Amino acid sequence: LASAALNAQGVATATITLAAGSYQIVATYAGDANSLASASDVLACVTASPSMCSASTPLLLLIAQATTRTALAVTPIPAEVLSPVNLTATVASAGGTPSGSVNFLADGVVIGSAALANGIASLGYAGLSVGNHSMTAAYTGDANNAASASASIAETVGLIPTTTVLGASTSAGSSAQTELTAVVANNGSGPAPTGTVAFWNGAANLGTATLDASGIATLAPVLVQGVDYTIDAVYSGDASHSASTSQTIAVSGTAIGFAIAVSPAAATVAEGQSAAVTVTLTAIASFSDTVDLGCASLPAMTRCQFASASLNLPAGGTVSTQLTLVTQTSSSGTGAMSGRANGTGLLFAILLAPLGFIGRRLRRSSSWTYLAGLVAMLVLAAMAAGGCSSSIKDQTVPGSYVLQITGSGASTHVSASQNFNLVITK
């Protein structure tokens, strides 16, 4: 292992390096010209020759593994889910430069290993779930260096932050509509956000839309013309992304379609007479279509006549037509009813006059024959009377009525209506 010269005091010292293990160390003195060889036990040299010197009793030497110390560094703290967490272990030894590998653990479970290089091992790991974790590093040791573990380091993994930006636009054409667009973006790392966006006017939910693959959600809400809205978009988040709320924007309601106006708004007419009014259509925003006109809730025997029942309404334009409401006179209906009633009585008398004569003749025959004849005569009389009464028609009844002047777009199917008060007098 080594040789060393004796000093003046007769002591020889040597420094040796041994691996961990159990050894038997033997020291021998070869002697010199004046001194015999010697040993540390009772054995002695049998001659004066130095070559015959005996060895000492073996010294049992136990070499233990060097102690080590492992330190762990974790960055970043806190971390974002799906983003790498960097773990670096540094192993120091009292017995030289350690070799081997280091295991990295999260919550006591090995998540990866790395070999030591100059006492340092590193690992990047992106599999930590959202929440709190305890991170440690364990050096496995080598032939000369004992294993060791680091102290734990607390790591917090959070959701990927997002930002939501809201915008609004109004489409052109006959069906103009306000459209809300929310764009949800992350910080540039990880996948695109998924899930839904809710659009709010204060505390009122206008609707919800699902994000597409690009993180965009759109909604065409129903807004009231002339009403001002303060709208924001709220992203609900997903398993990897945090929720976020947009800035608030101001939006004015844009109605779609047309309005109907009737002038005058009411009319009074005697039964049997007619009333003329003007119906005006006005396009709202950029609406345009051919509008078909009609009337609803008309009184009996009242006709609704438009000078033009279909009007071409241009975008932003106004068109008008005349409407005539024609009623049925009740006097003509009453006279017809009286005439028909008189005619019916006359016919009924003519049919019943011969019944006495026929009855006397039929009595001479059997009672069944007599009964059958009477029934036949009655049926003929009823048919005659019924035929006359069926020709009586309804009449316009005086009173106060609320009609609806209606319009429907032939292509857009957008509809509108306007109430009209009609009073019919005698």
Would you kindly provide a written description of the structure presented here, covering whatever features stand out?
With about 425 residues, this protein is mainly beta. It has helices spanning about 330-350, 355-365, 365-390, and strands at about 20-25, 60-65, 70-75, 80, 85-95, 100-105, 110-115, 120-125, 130-140, 150, 155-160, 160-170, 180-185, 195-200, 205-210, 215-220, 230-235, 245, 250, 255-265, 265-270, 275-285, 290-295, 305, 310-315, 320-325, 400-410, 415-425. The strands form seven sheets. Strands 4, 6, 7, 9, 10 and 11 form a six-stranded mixed beta sheet that branches. Strands 14, 15, 17, 18 and 19 form a five-stranded antiparallel beta sheet that branches. A five-stranded mixed beta sheet has the order 21-28-27-23-25, with no helix packed on it. α1 runs antiparallel to α3 (about 365-390) and α2 (about 355-365) packs antiparallel against α3 (about 365-390). It is rod-shaped, with a radius of gyration of 56 Å. Mean pLDDT is about 80; it is low at about 40-55, about 330-370 and about 380-395.
Can you give me a brief rundown of this structure?
A hairpin with a 2-residue loop joins strand 14 (196-201) and strand 15.
* Overall shape: rod-shaped
For the termini, the CA-CA separation is 142 Å
**DSSP, total strands:** 28
Summarize the biggest pleated sheet.
Answer: 6 strands, mixed
Rounded Rg: 56 Å
The amount of beta strand, in percent, is 35-45%
Percentage of residues in helical conformation: 10-25%
Query: Unreliable stretches, pLDDT < 50, 5 or more residues?
Result: 41-54, 332-372, 379-393
Count the DSSP helices: 3
The residue-averaged pLDDT reads 82
Supply the helix-strand structural class: mainly beta
